[in-house]
Amino acid sequence: MKNTLLIIKRELGSFFQSPIFYVLTTVFLVLYSFIFQNILAFFSMQSYQAGQIQGMNIGLNLNDMVIAPSFQNMAVILLLMIPIVTMRSFSEEKKSKTITLLLSSPIHLKEIILGKFLACFLVVALMMALSSYSVMFLWMVGEPEIGPIVSGYLGLLLMTGCYISIGVFASSLTDNQIISAVISFGFMLFMWIIGWGAQSAGPNLGAVLEYLSLIDHLENFLKGIIDSSDVIYYLTFIVFGLFLTHRILDSKRWR
Questions:
Q1: Structure confidence at residue 54 (pLDDT)
Q2: Which among 224, 33, 202 is positioned nearest to 147, based on CA atoms?
Q3: How far is Cα 54 from Cα 226, in angstroms, rounded to an integer?
Q4: In the predicted structure, residue 85 carries a pLDDT above the cut 60
Q5: What is the pLDDT of residue 251?
Q6: Comparing C-alpha atoms, which of 221, 11, 189 is closest to residue 116?
Q7: How many domains does the chain divide into?
Q8: Residues 153, 159, 163: CA angle, nearest 5 degrees
């Protein structure tokens, strides 16, 4: 565990000392803020119109109409941002020729991979934490339910872990950061839309495709439901991505 913490500290130091983190975080917050403001404006308009019609009983819920759509859009933004966070994980080590020293060090390979994964995860978690001003604002002006908010953030963090495991794996395949980002984005997007094929597939294959879809497992979290099958899916996805990374790097170690 001590070695993993050293890797995390090293990776976080390189993140915060480069402009990439600050530029990426700024772009993330600008995009999320713009989307949140528009969703909130639409909700305000709907509330005003409902109030103008006497006797009209419309249940306008902050969680369903503002928070859930905002979280869904945040997941899309992270789909675009995380490949940039993870692309340097091992690609930079390969390009700078430090990968050989790293793999031959007394630190176990699984500690290296876990350290890089957790460092990326903490960076993205910090970006998400900075965006929580939106939820705080809603608490000041309304009465959102706490349950769907907590479960929504949990679901986003688990999905983020899946994104990062894909990105770290892609980074282990090449010494080119751009290629790494493209590979990770392509695979993330594929796992996002794979459920669309369920509409034209048979019932059995369709069920499999829906289960494999990353976004389908987020829906329950946004409703305030923490289903063990969704949690197991995300955790299994993360572990499998890190396992593939371990296999790739371990094979390079013995070449």
A1: 53
A2: 224
A3: 38
A4: yes
A5: 80
A6: 11
A7: 1
A8: 135
pLDDT at 101: 75
In Å, what is the CA distance from 181 to each residue of 29, 64, 99, 142, 185? 20, 33, 19, 40, 6
In the DSSP assignment, the letter for residue 137 is H
Q: Provide the angle, in degrees to the nearest 10, between the axes of the packed helices 68-86 and 146-171.
A: 20
pLDDT tens for residues 5-48? 888 888 888 888 888 889 999 999 999 999 999 998 888 887 76
Q: Which domain holds residue 145?
A: 2-253
Residue 174 near residue 180 (C-beta atoms within 8 A)? yes
The answer to whether the CB of 86 falls within 8 A of the CB of 162 is no
CA 34 from chain centre, in angstroms, equals 19
Can you tell me which residue has the tokens 């794996």? 169
**Two structure tokens written together for 143:** 């009465």
Closest of 60, 75, 211 to residue 153, by C-alpha = 75
Radius of gyration of the chain (CA): 20
Output the CA–CA distances (angstroms, integers) from residue 179 to 46, 78, 139, in the order listed.
Answer: 45, 18, 42
Percent of residues, the chain, with pLDDT higher than 70: 93
Q: Are 117 and 239 in contact (CB under 8 A)?
A: no
Are the C-beta atoms of 192 and 72 separated by less than 8 Å? no
Residue whose token pair is 């995390």: 8
22: exposed, middle or buried (Cβ count in 10 Å: 0-12, 13-18, 19+): exposed
Place of tokens 């034209």: 200
